[in-house]
Structure of Calcineurin-like phosphoesterase domain-containing protein:
Amino acid sequence: MENREENQKALCKHIPDLLSSFVDAFVDFSVSGGLFLPSQNPSLDPQKTHQETPLSLQTRYPAPDRLVAIGDLHGDMEKSKQALRLAGLIDESDKWAGGSATAVQVGDVLDRGDDEIKILYFLEKLKREAMKDGGNLITMNGNHEIMNIEGDFRYVTKLGLKEFEDWAYWYCLGNEMKSLCAGLEKPKDIYDGIPLNFRGVDSEVLQGIRARIAALRPNGPIANKFLSKNVTVLVVGDSIFVHGGLMAKHVEYGLERINEEVRDWISGLMGKAAPRYCRGGNAVVWLRKYSVVEKNCDCSMLEHVLATVPGVKRMIMGHTIQADGINLACNNRAVRIDVGMSKGCGDGLPEVLEINQNSDLRVLTSNPLYQSKHKSYLDADTKEGLGLLINESGSKQVEVKA
């Protein structure tokens, strides 16, 4: 009898945590478009309130058998899935199909499109599926992630604001459910410190703006859940990834240090303003010295930077739309992969970059025009679209603010 009572007490002790997990899953399902996130190690879960230190971030990885690089997504779920499917990373059911491949998305999931939160959830789902399959999906911070965390919403769409307003409704409802349980700490008001009104802001978008601030400001729920796990600089094998570009001073400052400080800032440990190397034209997420048209590409600076990172032979960047598709410059040392695929930012045809273990580069493209532009094709196996050897060629830069 005593053992039965003890077992009942032990069970009851865990009810608050079970309720909290159920509510979190309920909110996730409601705001993600119907996704249940696969389980993961609780000690690595940024939702858990007992976690006192930020997640550790890995900056350097060995070369995988297959490496895939994906450019800016900008809130376009349909094009995002097309790019992932083109790379053979997801199947027709939108589940991870990349096996042991490593994929890197170079940032700018936010702004210009209407499915920002849904893409964040979708990428998180794929990360967990990939890990169970021996693969890896790594996401990065772009300038638009930094802008939104700082409260710069110049490039948000109305439907993008509505998505965050809907998220806030479900998140607050979840908090109300948790507050009914005596064993759980009362949830913090996500709107704490956010003004009820902003001068010059139309009432139609006011609640969306307040919700977006609440979600994305340092230590905000969406910032913590997703963006705090992004890296800002990354080395995989002989490739270094960054959204904008790196200068020698950034490497000297320390790649690991940059990742840790940006993570700490997003987690609310370093004030409201982004670290200085994330602000201004020469910032790691803003630099265009290697991604503009070839005649203006600063190849000498790029060579110097790459020489300071042992074993690295190329820099892979997003940020600047390449109208002619993924291309190389500076003796194949600069790789520009932003093809402006989002409907809100160029509406280009999806392309992704593939690097095999022998360091051979290939573009997987859905653009049939390359049939007449390039002679060297490789069999794209079972993937949709065309596989082509990447050649160094000039590119036409599309001018798009921010």
